[in-house]
Design a protein that fits this description.
Largest sheet: 3 strands, mixed
Protein name: BTB domain-containing protein
Mean pLDDT: 84
Distance between the termini: 28 Å
Organism: Coniophora puteana (strain RWD-64-598) (Brown rot fungus)
Helix content: 10-25%
Shape: extended
Low-confidence stretches: none
Length: 67
């Protein structure tokens, strides 16, 4: 599965954007609610509950009302 990339900085021709790669199991579940992208452009699909349980920062962030 490839991701689409929208380039808005056309005045920077030196920027090369590569499609994100999908992480392998167990971080590839299509039912996961959150996608975290690493600096090397790998997408990790994770469940909110795991992030909230593992990190007080994520727990607080995920408890905020959504627009």
């Amino acid at each position: 599965m490839t991701s689409s990339v929208q380039v808005t900085a056309l005045d920077h021709p030196s920027i090369v954007l590569h499609p994100a790669r999908q992480a392998k199991a167990p971080f590839d579940d299509p039912e996961a609610e959150i996608i975290l992208r690493s600096s090397d452009n790998v997408e990790f699909r994770v469940f909110k509950s795991f992030l909230a349980f593992s990190s007080s920062i994520f727990r607080d962030m995920l408890s905020l009302p959504q627009p």
